[in-house]
Amino acid sequence: MPRLFALAAAALLALGLTTALPTTAAAVELGDDGLHKTDWMRDTFKDLREDLAEANAEGKRLAIIMEQRGCVYCTQMHEEIFPQPVLADYIRDNFFVVQMNLHGDTEVTDFDGEALSEKQAARKWGMLFTPTILFLPEEVPEDQTAAQSAVAVMPGAFGLGTTIDMFTWVAEKRYELDNGEDFQRYHARRIQERDNGSTD
Question: Coiled coil located at which positions (predicted)?
């Protein structure tokens, strides 16, 4: 019987009849640079001091997402995770997100005043993987870089729960709380609450 079910599933796939099945994948726009684009990403001059000031003026947190053309993990995040309404709405409402290209030549001005290309900034900040998200505080000392001042770094592709927990942990400034609940403990608690059916 399992073999028969497998053959039937293969036949459905071959006929393209699985479109009625639920899926979280979505068509995602690609820019000329080959990077995925969303409506919550900001097109700025990439002067991080200006971006931070604008984020603060809007009451949002600045986040930098580093991606690259052809990144399968970036594609996974943009097709399966970022489009989820609960996450997309949260990012849109709480974050000012600036996208950068791991191999890009667009000029970036770091918080320490150094002007360099995106790819030079990626090397300076020690970024090796995409996607990587840097979450910035509301104030950055003039002598610090984006990497030095980040309150959290999210390297790689994660599921919806982990991703929304990270954005929430940053937005709520839980990294400042003196309660011993670092992100891992916070995330573990949120997993348990979701398993218990809590919506808080």
Answer: none
CA distance 187 to 129: 22
Spatial distance between the Cα atoms of 125 and 115, rounded to a whole number of angstroms? 13
Please tell me the total number of residues recorded for the chain in this structure: 200
When pLDDT is averaged across residues 82-111 and rounded to a whole number, the result is 98
Q: Looking at the predicted structure, is the pLDDT value of residue 34 above 70? A: yes
| pTM of the predicted model over 0.70 | yes
CA distance 62 to 94: 9
Tokens 């943009």 belong to residue: 78
Would you state the structure tokens that stand for residue 30, as one six-digit string?
């690609």
Residues paired with residue 153 on neighbouring β-strands, in sequence order: 134
Name the amino acid, one letter, at 129.
Answer: F
Rg for the chain, CA atoms, rounded? 19
Q: Report the distance separating Cα 147 and Cα 73, nearest Å.
A: 21
Cβ(103)–Cβ(127) under 8 Å?
no
Question: Which CATH architecture best describes the domain 25-157?
Answer: 3-Layer(aba) Sandwich (3.40)
Q: What is the pLDDT of residue 180?
A: 66
In the chain, the amino acid numbered 171 is A
Q: Is the peptide bond before 131 cis (omega within 30 degrees of 0)?
A: yes
Contact 59, 92 (CB under 8 A): no
Helix axis angle for 85-94 and 160-171, nearest 10°, is 20
